[in-house]
Specification:
Number of strands: 8
Order of helices and strands: EEEEEEEE
Structural class: mainly beta
Strand content: over 45%
Length: 91
């Protein structure tokens, strides 16, 4: 994987240490429960307690990238991680 920068399909942790899947193409304006607004990457939570709920981060720490892979088996995608590590995910 060439880059671990925030992007659509990235697995990332927010500042609260919660794992999410980025679904936005770019940062969008988000209003937080306390009324503060800011540009943040948005997506869904992947933690068991909050899975599927909205997730956002102004400065996500990307740890992997979900992408299609021509060499994976049908129905699977490759998750690229730091260095040359990767895992196959079957949906």
């Amino acid at each position: 994987m060439k880059s671990l920068t925030p992007q659509k399909g990235a697995l990332a942790f927010c500042s609260r240490g919660e794992l999410g899947l980025i679904l936005s193409d770019a940062p969008v304006l988000v209003e937080y429960p306390d009324g503060l607004k800011g540009l943040a990457w948005t997506g869904i939570h992947l933690s068991e307690a909050k899975i599927g709920q909205p997730w956002s981060s102004r400065e996500p720490r990307v740890v992997g990238l979900v992408k299609d892979d021509a060499f994976s088996t049908p129905g699977g995608v490759v998750i690229g991680g730091r260095g040359n590590t990767r895992a196959f995910l079957y949906l």
